[in-house]
Amino acid sequence: MRIQVLAAGLLLSCSLATPLWAKSTSPANFEAVADQHILPAYKRLSEQTEYLAKMVTGYCELSYTGPVVELQRQFHASMDAWQAIQHIRFGPAQFQLRSNRMQMWPDKRNSVSKHLRRLMEKQDKEILKADKFAAASVAVQGFSALERLLFTKQSKEPEAAKYRCALLKAITANLAQMSAGIYREWREGEAPFRQILLTATNGNDFYESDQELASTLLNNLHTQLKLILEQKLQRPLGKSVERAKGKRAESWRSHRASRNIEHNFRGLHKLYRTAFAERLAGHPLGESLDSGFQRGLEQLAQLRQPLSQAVADPGQRAEVEKLVAVVIELKALVADKLPKELGLSLGFNSLDGD
Amino acid sequence: MLKKILLIAGVGFCGQAVAAPTQQEVLHHYADLAQVMYQDSLDTARQLQVAVDQLIASPTEKNLLSAKVAWKQARRPYQQTEAYRFGNAIVDDWEGKVNAWPLDEGLIDYVAAGYGAESDENPYYTANIIANKKLMLSGREIDASTIDKRLLAETLHEIDEIESNVATGYHAIEFLLWGQDLNGTGPGAGQRSASDFDTRNCSWGNCDRRGAYLKAVTELLIDELAWMTTQWDKNGAARAALLEDPRKGIATIFTGMGSLSYGELAGERMKLGLMLHDPEEEHDCFSDNTHWSHYDDVLSVKNVYTGSYTRVNGAKVSGPSVSQLVAAKNSSADKTLLKSLDATLDKMQVLVDSAEKEGVAYDELIGEGNTEGNAKVMAAIDALLVQTKAIEKAVNVLGMSSIAFEGSDSLDAPETIQ
C-alpha cells in the first residue's frame, strides 16, 4: 500500500517536471481523471445514496408521517455527492439516461410538479416496481421529486402518507441503484469505462483517439460552467431586482442552490487539476484558472441568504452579480484560451437549445 | 466539357476538389438562400391569412380545415430556415416572436380542467386573454378590451420575462386552430370546433374576441416574416453582419448547423420529451405535426451545408456551399457529414411514415411503455448525435473551432467576447 502511494507520488512529480512540449503525445492525464476524480466521486455518491435508501426504509417501517429531519440531512449529503460529479456527461452516467433520471433540472415547464401530482392523485402502485419505475417519466425518478417530498408540506391523510412512503422508497432505491451501477460500470464488466479511458490513445469503441476523449473532458468542463452561469445564476436573477425569479434556482425548496454551486466548483476544479493542470504547469493560464475557482468559492461565501432570496434582495443581489462576473471570466478562459493551449477543440454544447 | 476535365483532375488528386468557391461566394449564396426561404415562409403565411379570414367570415368546419392545411403548409418552409437561427444574432433575437414554444396556452384561451390552475413558474398560467377584457399583469391593470397586434406583441408576449407566455407566432395560431390535444399520449390531435369562431352560434363564449385574436396574430406573423426577409436583402442587416468578417461568417453557418442539431433538436425538442413521456413536450403538440417539424429541421441543416433548397413551387436553388469548402480540404470529412445528414433524414422519415402512413403520431411514440415507439425516436436522436460529431469534424478541418463552438454562446453573453 505504502509502496503504491509512493509510486504514485513519484509518477506525479516526474510528470510535473516534464516540460510542456514533451507531453504533446497525451492531451490529458486520463488515469488521474479516473482514479483521483471520477471514481472516488462516484464511490461517494454510491455510498451516500445507499445509506439514504436504507434510512428511508427504516423511516417507513416506523411511521409514514414521522419527522423527516434525518432524511433531509441525508438528502443533503447525497445531493452534495451528486453535485460534485454532475458535470460528467459521458460514460456510465449517460447510459440508460441515468444523469437525467438522477435529477430532472432545469425544469422550465414545471414537469416535476405536474407529473408528481398526477402520480400521487392516482396512487399508482404498479409503477413503483423497480423495473417500471426506471422507465417512468424522469420527472418523478430522482432528486427533484425527492426534494419536493421531503421539503414541502405533505398530506397526513393515512392513504396519501402511505403512498408517499412507497414513493420515497422507490425514488431512493432507484437513486442508489443507478449510482451503484455507474460506479460498478466504471470498474467492472467486459469493458470497464476506466479501461476505455486508458485505451483511448489507440482508439476504441467509444473514442477514435485520445484527442476526442480529451475534448470531451474539456467540453464537460465548459458545459457545466455554462450551466452554472446561465441556468443556476442568470435565470433566477432575471433582468432586475423587481423581476428576480428565486424559484428558478436549483434546489430552492431545500435552500441549497449555492451549496450546489460550491460542490460544482470543487468538482470542476478537480477535473481541471487532474486532467489538464500538469500540462499547464508554470503557465499563467493555469494560475488564472486556479484563482478563478478560488474566487468563485470566496464569492459564494459572501451570500448570507439562500440564492433564491438573495436575488431579490438589493444588497445580496450585488454579491450574486459579482459571482456571475467571476463565472463569466472563468468560462471565457475555458472556452477561448484553454482549447488553444491544449490543442483541443471544444465541440458543440448540449445546452445550446432554448 | 471543361467541367468533365476538372472532375477527372479532381479525382486524380485524391478527391481534392480543384475549384472550391471563395468564402465570400459561399456567404453570399447562404444569404441568398435565406432570403428565398423566408420569402417562401412569407408567401405561405399569406395563404394562411386568406384561409383565416375566410374562417372568421364563414366559420364552417370546411373553412377550419382549410386553415389547418394552410398552417401546415406554412410550417414547411419556415422550419427549413431554422439552421439560420443560432449563429445569426439578428435571427436568434427575433425567433421568439414567431416560433416560441412551449406555451402555457391558458394565457390565451379556455383550457380543460386537467391543465391545472397554477404553475410555479408562471402566474399568468390561466390568464385567458380571450375571456378577459381586463387583466391584472405584473401588478397593474391591463386594458385588453381590444385585441390587436399591439396588445399581443408589446404587452402580452413573454410578459414578465416568462418564456412560456407565448402570445404570438406559429404555435399561438396552431392552438387557436386546433385547441388543446386532450388525448395524452393516445391517438388524436386537438379538437377545436369551427363554432368557436361563430359569433351567432358561439361555443365557449367570446367568439368575436377569439376571431380578433386569430386575425391579429396571423397579421403579426406576416409582418415579422416580411421584416426578416428584408434583413437578407442586398443591403439587409443580417447579410451585412454575416459578410463583415468572412471567417466568422463561415463559422456562423456551422454554429447554426451544430446548435440546431444537438442542443436544440436532439436535446430540448426530442430527448426531453422522450424522457418525460409527456405529450406536451411535442413541438407541434396541438396539430400533431411534429414529425414534419423535426424532418424539416434536419433538411434545414442539409440545405445550408449543401447550399441547395427546393422551393415551395418546386424550383431548385443551388450554389457555392460550405460543403465544397470542406471537401476541398478533406473530402472524407465532407462525405461523412453528407452521409450522416442523409442517415438522420432516414430516421426522421420513419417518424413521418409512422404519423402519415401508420396513423401513429409523435406524441404516441414517446408515450410511457411504448418501447417500439420510444426506440424509433431514440434512433433519430442518436443519428443527430452522430451528425453533430461529423459537423464538429468539418469545423476542425476548416480550422474554425474556436469561433464556431463559442459562437452561439457569445450571442447570449456578449461579455465573454474579449
Averaging pLDDT over every residue of chain B, what do you get? 90
**Distance N terminus to C terminus of chain B?**
51 Å
CATH class of the largest domain in chain A: Mainly Alpha
Main sheet summary of chain A: none
Figure out the total of helices of chain A. Answer: 14
How many beta-strand runs of chain A?
Answer: 0
Radius of gyration of chain B, whole Å: 22 Å
Q: How many strands appear in the DSSP assignment of chain B?
A: 4
CATH architecture verdict of the largest domain in chain A: Up-down Bundle
| Structure classification of chain B | mainly alpha
Task: Note poorly predicted spans of chain A.
Answer: 1-24
Can you tell me the overall shape of chain A? globular
Q: What assembly state would you assign to the polypeptide chains in this entry?
A: heterodimer
Across the major sheet of chain B, the strand order is: 1-2
Helix content of chain A: 55-70%
Measured between the Cα atoms of the first and last residue of chain A, the distance is: 50 Å
Q: Biggest interface in this structure? A: A-B, 43 and 47 residues
- The CATH superfamily of the largest domain in chain A is M75 peptidase, HXXE motif
CATH fold node name of the largest domain in chain A: A middle domain of Talin 1
